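User: Predict the complex.
Assistant: Input components as received:
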Amino acid sequence: MKRIVDLIAEELSEAFEGAGYDRSLARVTLSNRPDLCEYQCNGAMAGAKAYKKAPLMIAEDVVKRLSGSEYIEDVQAVKPGFINMKLRAERIASYLNEMKDDENLGVEKAEEALTIVVDYGGPNVAKPLHVGHLRSAIIGESIKRLIRKMGHQVLGDIHLGDWGYQMGLIITELKVRQPELPYFDDTFEGEYPGEAPFTIGELEEIYPAASAKAKEDEAYREEALHATYLLQNGHRGYTAVWRHIMNVSVSDLKKNYKNLNVEFDLWKGEADAQELIPDMLERLKKEGYAHMDEGALVIDVQKESDTKEIPPCMIQKSDGASLYGTTDLATLVQRERDYKPDKIIYVVDKRQELHFVQVFRAAKKTKIVPKETELKFLGFGTMNGKDGKPFKTREGGVMRLENLIAEIEEEMYKKITDNRTAGEEEAKQTAKIVGLSAIKYGDLSNQASKDYVFDVERFTSFEGNTGPYILYTIVRIKSILNKYTAGGETLSGLTIKGALGESEKALMLEAVKYNEVLKTAYEELAPHKICAYIYDLANAFNRFYHETKILTEEDVGRKKSYLALLLLTKEILLSCIDVLGFEAPERM
Ligand code: ARG
């Protein structure tokens, strides 16, 4: 469906043109002054210069031509030249009914579906997931769902950190602890055991232990580096250990991401790009894109227009080892080969921005990626504790994701059981669902690039701009609708009629914005705009609810219209939280 702003703009275009002005002046936006009007057009001001006329005169000319308008009930030209409009409730009602009957609630799918890769999550195998990975998962998942909702073909790729120094550390430590294992016997030619020599619990203890040792003990560090080198060069036993590490970690990661309602289409990692590196480097050298600089192989990416220095993208160290940039370039080679994406979006900590500037420039310059392909860095800020410093445990350590989730769930559980007497099982289940909304909404309601304070108290509150408040509103609507159907009535075939009350119209005006909000959120990759919208929508609903007798309304036509509006409001809220990556419980 066309967005309501566009439909109004079409009418205004006719009016502008009819009055002798350019049609393109008729851009319509939501009102900046909701106390005065619902929508506004500032085109008269924009046209004043070209027509050498006072904006107010232009606005008045246009307004005169809008008397028979289909959408606009009341229109005024006000100083200095605004065109302020209020819409006809009946026309909004019919728009809403059309939304209700449309399977996408009025969101138009893209005419031409693009192929878009979203690179997000980016956990490092064998290291526990911590809150630093939380933002990437939450924001990336939402971006992915939003893109899919707009009708594009999207591939979410976890891009595991599975090829680095941490692997050498684990191998080294394992060798110290269990030197008898066949992986460390270079004469061993048999088949390696199918079973991993460690559990996930042990693995998570091995890594930090090894990492700490390496910081103290230079020889140990050297050995870990060498083990990394051997692994990366195909050492048979180490490759077998690496497979074990991968299997054990990946199944644990899958469990963790599932708890977060995060699903990847692709479980590729840095390791998958390795086989493409030699040919890539060969070509880049041969075609003169890469050159030696102080022993390392680099690609220059500085541009004349740069105001600050952008160092070259390093693709091979003097010892022959590849780097983060090498892997990301080779991954682009792989993505080009396998998917030919129109666009790739990287959802990564904004402190990595320079790295991506270098990689993107190098990829374009070397034609690894065609120039039409959009490479987009969506950098996010840090999640801080209440003290304004990066989020830590009470003891000051790095907070593990599982513990963080558990903490929120516990808090939610307390609130839910305080509120009513839900059974133990149900309360736990609900605490899980609502807890996730608290975490995700708490994150997504901030503009991604900004730092934010993770505040358990505030995020789990049932009041204010929070996930639980949104869910509470949905549950409230569900309960009204359930009461209605429990009386034997049906919800199908209900239609919204024009609004009688002011709060009813206000709710309708919010509902009507849905497709516009999604479009903007998609174009700007801004889930926080969806949060802001559903907060307004929930507020509008709650105000309407407090001012209106719904189920006890005696006029049956009215009552059915209210229920139809509730049904649509619920569908919109559900669709939005689905894009944000969480769900609503039946009761709270
Ligand atoms: N594993 C990396 C980290 O923990 C994030 C990976 C981001 N994605 C990428 N293509 N480099 O910092």
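The CA atoms of residues 21 and 50 lie 10 Å apart.
Let me know if you want any component modeled separately.
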